[in-house]
Amino acid sequence: MAEWSLFTNHANVLLAITRNPDIRLRELAAEVGISERAVKRIVADLERAGYLQRERHGRRNHYQINTEAAVATPIARGVHLGALITALLPMIAQSI
């Protein structure tokens, strides 16, 4: 396995949630390859940054991605999260 990854764990968690908005933290951790504690921290970071919202549905969470949120990186200034996800998800879906 590579020592580094092009996508951060934050990006991987966000993309996994985009594919499955009802995913459990345990499933997210397994898919991304990090601990549940790390996933919980990342989800909280993404919420604070305005990239997603979490709603409680019974005993589970449902996540909603804020596609209008601006991507917080100088190179992509003015790009909305929805545009980035729209560009990446078809390629990711093909590799599954």
UniProtKB/TrEMBL annotation:
Pfam families in UniProt: HTH_24 (PF13412)
Domain of life: Bacteria
SUPFAM superfamilies: Winged helix' DNA-binding domain (SSF46785)
Coiled coil: none
UniProt name for this protein: MarR family protein
